[in-house]
Each structure stands twice: as C-alpha cells, then as structure tokens.
Amino acid sequence: MDEFLIHLFALSLGGGIIGLGLMGLARATRSHYAARCRCVVWLLLCARLAIPLSLMPRDIAPVQIQAPSLDRPVVATAAPSNAPSAEHTQISDSEMQPQETSWQAPSFVPVICVVWAIGTAGVLLWSVASHLRLRRYLRRWAKPVTEPSICERYQTQARRLKITRIPPLVYCPGLKIPMLAGVLRPVLMLPEHMEADDMLDCALLHELIHYRRKDIWLKVVAVLATSVHWFNPLVWLMERQVEQDMELACDETALAVLPPEEHRAYGETILRAAAQAKEP
Questions:
Q1: Minimum mean pLDDT range among 136-145, 159-168, 270-279
Q2: Per-residue pLDDT for 60 more than 90?
Q3: What is the DSSP annotation of 197-244?
Q4: What would the pLDDT profile of 205-241 be if each residue is shown by its tens digit?
Q5: Could you give the CA distance from residue 250 to residue 36 in angstroms, rounded to a whole number?
Q6: What pTM does this model have?
Q7: Which listed site, 131, 183, 198, 270, has its alpha carbon 20 to 30 Å from 209?
Q8: What is the pLDDT of residues 129-160, one digit of tens each?
Q9: Which among 182, 190, 70 is positioned nearest to 134, based on CA atoms?
C-alpha cells in the first residue's frame, strides 16, 4: 500500500509537470505545431495517468544481489584453549529476543488510501451521472430533425468529410449551440428553431469533424485521468487544455476542408457559438 501511494503521487507530480510543459509549449509554438499533434500527446499522457499502476515488473532491478542461504551447515571447529567454557557462554532466550517497544507511531496510509478512493469514485460517479442524466433528458425531450432542407445540408457536410455512417440529428430544447454528445451511441443535437443557412453548415461540419476524429474518447480518457488524480490541480488544468486543443484541431481540419471563400463564414460561426456558450 505504501508503494502504491508513492507511485501514485510520483505519477501525478510527473504527469502534472509534463502537462504544464506541454501547455507552455503549445502557447509558444502554436503556429508551428498543429493541435492535432498535441491531441495525440494528450491522449498518451492521459492514458498513462488513468492507470495508476507501475508498468515495470517488480522483479527487474538494475542490480540484483542473491541473499545468502540460511540453511548452510555449520562447521564445528575446536575452541581455543583460552575460550570461555560452554556454561559461561549460554545466554537465556529472553536475552536473545529483541526488545519490543511499547508504543508505535500511527500509520496514516490506510486513511489516505480511503480518502483517495472516495474522491476518485466521487468524481467518476459525478461524470457518469451527468452523462446518464443527459441521455435521459434526450430520450424524453429530444425530437428527430425532419426538415428536408436541414437534413440535406447535413448529408452534404457528411459527404464532404467522406462519412458514410452519421449520428442521428435531433432537436434538443434548451440547447444554445449545436453539440455532439454520447459515447457509445453519439447524437448530434441542434437548438430548436435552427435556421437552414451557411451558419448551420459550418456548425454541422464542425460537429461532424469531432465525430470523425473520435474526440469523445479523448474526453473520456481525460475524465478518467482527472478522476484518478482529482487532488492535483494541474490535472484539472490539463483537462481544460485538452478540450481547447480538441476545438483547435477541429478548426484546423475544417479550414483545410473548406474553400478559402468560406473561411470567413466559418470563423464568424465559431465566434458566435463561443459568445452564446458564455451566456447565462
């Protein structure tokens, strides 16, 4: 148990320092390295943080020393003439046994492990409950999109990205901006009374890129890493940076797919969506 806690804290500290370095590198070299590459690094780092176990076998060490055997026969030798007699060398059993201390320092290791397990379970259960609550809300209130104009635009953006199997398109009451949700069965949610215009095309393209890139799984791995290292504020900061890099990677892909004359409309759509997301 002591070794597990030491490895957990060392992994959390090392992962937090690496994540902080990646965030600094992302800000310093944003124009030289694509966000897609950073997302791959984030995936590897979060996957390692989500497994709080040592990946190196314990029996492998740089230096191995074989302990001497305790079953070796004892060779009797003649005692010197000036050696004390046997009756003077006998020691009582009470003198041979080590003296036991009457007081031992309390161990806080089990308490720390329990606190860590409770925090991990709490963060993980909160994320799962939020996802299940959203699924239940969608089953009750979501309505499939049936307007031919919107469905045709949806199919057009899917063909542009060469996606053959697209998630269901539904209306979600109370939603401000289009959003892709769901891990095993994702759906693309639209706000009610969405107009079929160029802004809708850009929003659909953006969310379909998230779907094609499987960004939802990167979010899942980041949530697992945050659940395991909930006590480390650097890991929470790293999760926010992961989401930002996912959005940047999606924008990079969208600008590579769209023709130059549509870049302005796409940028305006992203800015409008960001402003609406910050509204109370």
A1: 270-279
A2: no
A3: SHHHHHHHHHHHHHHHHTHHHHHHHHHHHHHHTTT-HHHHHHHHHHHH
A4: 999 999 999 999 999 999 999 999 999 999 999 999 9
A5: 8
A6: 0.77
A7: 131
A8: 998 898 898 888 889 999 999 999 999 999 99
A9: 182
Q: For residue 179, which phi and psi values (nearest 5 degrees)?
A: -155, 140
Distance CA 201, CA 266 (A): 9
The one-letter amino acid at 229? H
Structure token digits, residue 169: 């398109």
Numbers of helices and strands, H then E, in the chain: 10, 4
* Residue 234 to residue 238: CA distance in whole angstroms: 6
Query: Under a CB-based contact definition with an 8 Å cutoff, are residues 243 and 274 in contact?
Result: no
Phi, psi (rounded to 5 degrees) for 143: -125, 135
Residues 199 and 99 sit within 8 Å (Cβ to Cβ): no
Token pair recorded at residue 215: 């960004």
Tell me the two tokens of residue 51. 């497994």
Question: Strands across the sheet with 187-190, in order?
Answer: 143-144, 169-171, 187-190, 179-181
Residue type (1 letter), 257: V
Quick one: pLDDT at residue 61?
46
How far apart (Å, rounded) are the C-alpha atoms in residues 158 and 259? Answer: 16
